[in-house]
Design brief:
About 45% of the residues lie in helices and about 15% in strands. It has 10 helices and 7 strands. It has a 7-stranded parallel β-sheet, sandwiched between helices. Helix 1 crosses helix 10. The structure holds nicotinamide-adenine-dinucleotide.
């Protein structure tokens, strides 16, 4: 149990990678605030509680600074502190650049990049007061390592998240706060299944050196590592988990 007594906020935790992260952190002893804009957070909280751990569901849109501040306040009211923030909420609507509208660009940047700013700002006063904290940003190989067609807004947002991670890590080290990022490759989630062709996904998996799509637990295990003292000398870094996609 690597996270006993720790309080973690995970955004976008109702499903997919975020849900996997919330479950993995609770298994390691953390109390988890399960944040999302959709209502399925209650199911994740029940799952955590049925295994004997504590959790709290909070409805918050990460693109809205008032809602993220309220999420941080709810965490403090319930658990008294915030040790870990996992900025996971994100969207990836495919759209060719030539057809991309300004409102579509703003929505992706607002959730994926400004959301990281909003949530980090919301937890910072408590972490600075505690003189300790741990922020983990779920980035992507898209934008942080390679480019992806039809995802220019998404790639720009995730490239931004990597820059944010490095600069914030530099600035916050003096308060005992570490900031790191994880770049997943193709992970099987409800999000990646929307409108996806099962056969094309299987074929894609066969092009990967490790010959499989990733699972949420592949990312959750890395989050537990970055959130625990096992990584206490690591800050400002990007860890890539992509089945070998970017080494080809
Ligand atoms: N799945 C992949 O292949 C993959 C690859 C690289 C990076 N990622 C990143 O991992 C993260 C999770 O992706 P996923 O595949 O699990 O997605 P998903 O769509 O399955 O789940 C995302 C969750 O985020 C929530 N969410 C969306 N907008 C929100 C908002 N404004 N405020 C709060 N919550 C919001 C959704 O309701 C949903 O529960 C994203 O940041 C994504 O960019 C995913």
């Amino acid at each position: 149990m690597k996270l006993v007594g720790k309080v973690a906020i995970v955004t976008g935790a109702a499903q997919g990678i975020g849900r996997g992260i919330a479950l993995a952190m609770s298994k390691e002893g953390a109390m988890v605030v399960v944040g999302d804009v959709i209502d399925k957070t209650a199911d994740v909280v029940r799952e955590i509680e049925s295994s004997g751990s504590e959790a709290l569901a909070v409805k918050a849109n990460v693109a809205n600074g008032k809602e993220t501040e309220e999420m941080a306040r709810a965490a403090i009211r319930k658990f008294g502190k915030i040790d870990i923030l996992v900025n996971n909420a994100g969207i990836y609507p495919y759209r060719p650049l030539i057809d991309m509208r300004e409102d579509e660009w703003d929505r992706v940047i607002g959730i994926n990049l400004k959301g990281v700013f909003n949530c980090t700002k919301a937890v910072l006063p408590k972490m600075v007061e505690q003189k300790s904290g741990n922020i983990i940003n779920i980035c992507s190989i898209a934008g942080a390592v390679v480019g992806f067609s039809n995802l220019v807004h998404y790639s720009a947002s995730k490239g931004g998240v990597l820059g944010f991670t490095r600069a914030a890590a530099l600035e916050l080290a003096q308060y005992g706060i570490r900031v790191n990022a994880i770049a997943p490759g193709g992970i099987e989630t409800p999000g990646t299944k929307v409108g996806a062709d099962e056969e094309a996904l299987k074929q894609f998996a066969q092009t990967l050196p490790l010959k499989r799509m990733g699972q949420p637990v592949d990312i959750a295990n890395l989050v537990v590592f970055l959130a625990s003292d096992d990584s206490s000398y690591i800050t400002g870094q990007l860890l890539i988990a992509d089945g070998g996609f970017t080494i080809q």
